[in-house]
Every structure is written in structure tokens, then in C-alpha cells.
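Worked example 3. Consider a protein that binds adenosine-5'-diphosphate.
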Amino acid sequence: MIQVKNLTKRYKEVEAVKGISFTVDQGTVFGLLGENGAGKTTTLRMIATMIKPTSGTALIDGKDLIKEPDNIRGKIGILFGGDTGLYDRLTARENIEYFGLLNGMNKSDISKRIDMLSKKLEMEEYIDRRVGKFSKGMKQKVSIARSIVHNPQIMLLDEPTTGLDVTSVRIVHEFILDQKKEGKTILFSSHSMSEVEKLCDIVGIINKGKLVEVSTLDELKHKFKGNNLEDIFVELVGEKSEY
Ligand SMILES: Nc1ncnc2c1ncn2[C@@H]1O[C@H](COP(=O)(O)OP(=O)(O)O)[C@@H](O)[C@H]1O
Ligand SMILES: [Mg+2]
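Given these inputs, the predicted complex is written out as C-alpha cells:
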């Protein structure tokens, strides 16, 4: 479970996140929907203990982000969009193994886990090849395996499908639904309405650093008497979305 409490982040004159609070229950998918610059990445980075909040905090399975960040890192899996950050000269297995070691796993557990994940994600054919020449979809699978090698209960995914081709998007969507089935707690950000509609139990709409709405999709549609998430988004955010 993730409980975000009044998180704020200020970069000099820019207040990127302005006191955000929400809860993600265990076994559910929470989608943070917002345009570019809304504050999604900043919010997720704070929860991932990658940057320090200016004020506020979050509890990750009851552990306080500010007081015990070291107890949180092992509980979360992180998949951020854009550059995968894989090492081209290492094989897929070595990339995943390296991450497992960083997360304090021993080699034998890592090896069992990689065998399982490579089967599940259908990477067996290329698990021992260097990732340098992999397609985007292949790389995405390696990143996914890497993010869950330590079997985290909580997943943080920042625009995990942005910039990916159709096949890779499908891989990520299936992965998210699969993790949900396993009872994982998932927080992901997106600027795609259709993605949020497809994957989320709860949607939080973020605009200029503030959460302007948190509801289930049905509640949202009922409340705004619309059946189209895009119309609701425009109504809440107050300007036409480019997406
Ligand atoms: N390291 C930083 N230094 C200064 N401003 C930043 C930094 N990171 C993000 N910002 C600003 O904070 C705001 C929110 O950014 P971000 O969280 O990346 O939004 P999103 O992920 O929704 O596109 C933007 O105005 C952005 O320019
Ligand atoms: Mg972002």
C-alpha cells in the first residue's frame, strides 16, 4: 500500500508538486494522468526515494519515506520510460543479475528468478546475448525483468509506454495486468487516456502540480456526466489536450 501525504517539491522558483495526497491500496492500479510538466515524474521520483521532497512524506507499506528510505528501496520496483539505462555490452542476463545484486539478492536466487522471468517474458532465446543490438521490444522486456527481479510488492512506472512501438506497448500493458493479478500495488503515470482507461482501478488527474480529481473511472464519468475520459480531462484541466 502507498499512502502519499501532502508531498511538495520546489525547485528554486518552480513549485513542481504542490501538496499532493492519495492512497494506492494493495492489489490495485492507480493511474496518474496529466500533461507534460504536470508533476508526474517529480511525484514518482519522490516516492521512489530518488529525490527528496521539500515537504510532506509517503508511507510505503507503512514505512516512512523520509525516516527510512533504505527500508523502502527493496520493496519497490521501478520502471521509468524513455532510455532503459541497460548496459549494451552486458547480456540480458548480466543486466538483470547486476540489478539483483544491487538489491541484495544472492546469485542462486537471482539465477532461479531469471530463469522464471525469461520463460514468462519469452526471452529465453536471447537471454545470454548482449543487449546492444536488441529491438525496443526486447529491451523493454529486459527492463521489465530487471525491475521485478527482487519480486517487489510495489511497482512505480513513469510513463512506461511513452515512445514505444505497438508491440512493446502491448508487452508493458500485459505486464501491468499480470502484476495486478499477482496482487501487486501499482502506481503508474501516463498522458494517454486510453491507457489509463484500460489499466486503472483509480485515476488521479494531476495538473500544474496539484491533484484535481481522484476517482474510479465510473465515478468520474458519472460525476461529469461524460462517457469520454478525454472530455472530462479537458473540463478538469481547462484546456484542450494535445493528446
Ligand atoms: N530538476 C528540475 N529542476 C527544475 N525544474 C524541474 C526539475 N524537474 C522538473 N522540473 C519542473 O517541474 C515541473 C514538473 O515536471 P515533471 O515532474 O517532470 O512533469 P511531468 O513528468 O508530468 O511531465 C515542470 O515545470 C518542470 O519543468
Ligand atoms: Mg515525466
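Take a moment to read the result before moving on. Residues 166-181 form the longest helix (16 residues). The chain has a mean pLDDT of 91.
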